[in-house]
Amino acid sequence: MSTPRDINPEVQAARDELAASLDELLNRVHPRTVAQEFAKTTKQAATDAASFVSGQGLPHEDDPVRARNAKAALGVAVGGAALLVLTLLTKKKK
To answer: pTM of this prediction?
Structure first.
């Protein structure tokens, strides 16, 4: 039968592991961390979209998230350009 003396190191190890897991989770959901990750992803998507426009193609297929983000950035750019053209055309008619 296990005694409290035998169990105590196991309990302390479990507490330490839980504390480390909680610290990591808190860091992942901290607003600063989320904002930094968003900024990094956005910059990477813009760079990938620029590479596509310059003829270098989309990121390798081994990273489908980067390819998707680049396509989204291209879509936003095309949509923004179309909106700008429509706005300019409708202002000219007035």
So the answer is: 0.58
